[in-house]
Design brief:
about 300 residues, Rossmann fold, Dihydrodipicolinate Reductase, domain 2, 2 domains, 8-stranded mixed β-sheet, 8 helices, globular
């Protein structure tokens, strides 16, 4: 089996997990890690038994593919260097800090015939398999992503950090574009948006409410489809699903409910493997730069 020489660039909290998945992947010959903090890179390299790089230039001719898990502000510079040096890129979401940067990344990847994929990991959540198999003809959706405040990722708005997942999920699952939207948002603990609720209408005529908060007491990552006489709800964290359907309003128990759990899998490992496989097989990237840029464009619009 062909293996690709890989590295992870940016090995903070999330990047460390990415590095573990590259090391474990059957498609990877894991070379090493890079971080803005050489001390951090050395520690992770020691923990995982790989090389540590203190300069991006050291990666040249050493790796075939990377995952970029550095801060959002650093995505563009690192990705452009990699794409300019023949390295395939999987970059954490959001694809870049600004739309014009995303456009340049996409253009360079195409120009150099390289894969550019973006880490919208919820596409790989096993609940999505169950949702896609369902026969629920949704008229509306409710997507919630909220939890207590944490300083990690507080440098960007809650829409850039959390809601962007659900924008991508909504358009990907429905195959429909957002036609119009109404935005509510609040600054609470930071100088940017900490809470937001967006109501959208899709080109299909379906509607959706997207709620993102980092000022909630309880964590909630859920996806709900609402149709005539039935709903399908999924908790994306616990993988629990519930289908509720009207039987007959005249009955003592007019509604039937089925509850089950999606089969567990390591979504981050799955995402990593799919990225490496798309390079080996020369197939489309799991999450295209264009899809990621579309999600970012709405987040940028709503954040103004």
């Amino acid at each position: 089996m062909k293996k690709l020489r890989t590295a992870v660039l940016g090995v903070g909290y999330l990047g460390f997990f990415h590095a573990q998945k590259h090391k474990a992947s059957e498609y990877s010959e894991f070379v090493g890690v890079f971080d803005a903090s050489p001390e951090r890179a050395k520690k992770v390299a020691t923990d995982l038994g790989c090389l540590s790089f203190s300069e991006l230039s050291q990666l040249k001719n050493q790796v075939d593919a990377v995952t970029i898990a550095a801060s959002t502000q650093a995505h563009f510079e690192i990705a452009m260097w990699c794409l300019s040096n023949g390295i395939h890129v999987n970059v954490e979401k959001p694809i870049a800090a600004e739309l014009h940067q995303a456009e340049k990344m996409i253009q360079l990847a195409k120009q150099n015939k390289l894969k550019l994929s973006v880490g919208h990991i919820e596409r790989f959540n096993p609940c999505m398999d169950e949702i896609k198999k369902s026969n629920v003809k949704a008229e509306s959706f409710v997507l919630r992503r909220q939890g207590p405040f944490k300083t990690r990722a507080a440098d960007v708005s809650v829409m850039h950090d959390l809601m962007i997942h659900d924008v991508d999920l909504l358009t990907w699952l429905t195959g429909s574009q957002i036609k119009s939207s109404h935005v509510l948002k609040r600054k609470v603990f930071t100088q940017t948006w900490d809470w937001s609720e967006v109501h959208v209408t899709l080109s299909s005529g379906q509607t959706a409410s997207l709620i993102a908060s980092r000022v909630s007491q309880a964590a909630d990552r859920s996806f709900q489809m609402i149709a005539k006489e039935e709903t399908l709800w999924a908790h994306l964290g616990t993988l629990e699903l519930q289908h509720t359907k009207l039987i007959n309003l005249s009955l003592p128990e007019p509604v039937s409910t089925r509850t089950w759990s999606a089969e567990k899998r390591d979504a981050l490992q799955f995402e990593t493997n799919e990225f490496l496989k798309c390079i080996i097989n020369d197939s489309p990237a799991p999450v295209s730069g264009e899809d990621a840029m579309q999600a970012l464009s709405w987040i940028e619009e709503w954040s103004k």
